[in-house]
Amino acid sequence: MATFKAFNPLGAEPGKIKETPESRAYWQSVKPAGLVKTKNPHYDLKKHYSKTIELATVVSLVLVLFSFLTLRNFETEAQQITSSIQELIVEEIPVTEQLRKLTAPPRPAVPLPSDDEDIADDETIDDTDINFAEIPPPPEKPVIDDAEDIFVVFDTPPKPVGGYQSIYERIVYPEVAKMANIEGSVVLRLLITPRGEVERAEVIKDSGSDVGFEKAALAAVDGTKWSPAMQRDRAVKVWVSVPIRFALTNLSS
Question: Is the CA virtual torsion 169, 174, 180, 186 positive or negative?
């Protein structure tokens, strides 16, 4: 294995030089004022810069001129390259048609003899006489009520004149429910005309107790006045759901 020694400018190995009294006395006797402050002209590289640059420039120019003069005498021959032209032949290939196999027709049913003795040998269907005069006429078309199909998009919903409190003021609490302390709620569906009148009133959810809440609710909304629903600037006919709560706390007779 190769070993490398460190650079040693003094020429002696470190740690093996011992200071003698004579060397110590010499270095102590040297004073900074007695040291030479001028450089040796033989080792001052700044004085040789200009000469070195001039010499390098001259040598470079000589080499460039020599290269141009030498390479000018060389001649190159042009080589002509001929390329072969290949001819492409395009052939039309017909489209492959896939032949579909025709399905075979179903085989005719062949009657087979049966071993069942209950089947008669010759069985025919009796003639049936139909009296077309006795056929009842078709049923009449059901009458479709136009009011059932009313669905109008409106901007302002209808409201009762005087608010919903005016409907509660018209409610007559059933006597049977009052005596039995029964409370309940009914949901009605009202058809409000453009004139603000109740054209039809229906019960869509009853109270679940047969004490007369539904009849009292229909009687309360009958004849009430409404502000009609508005579609932009036009009054329209719409359905509206009205829940009515029967409570003994707000009883009014």
Answer: negative
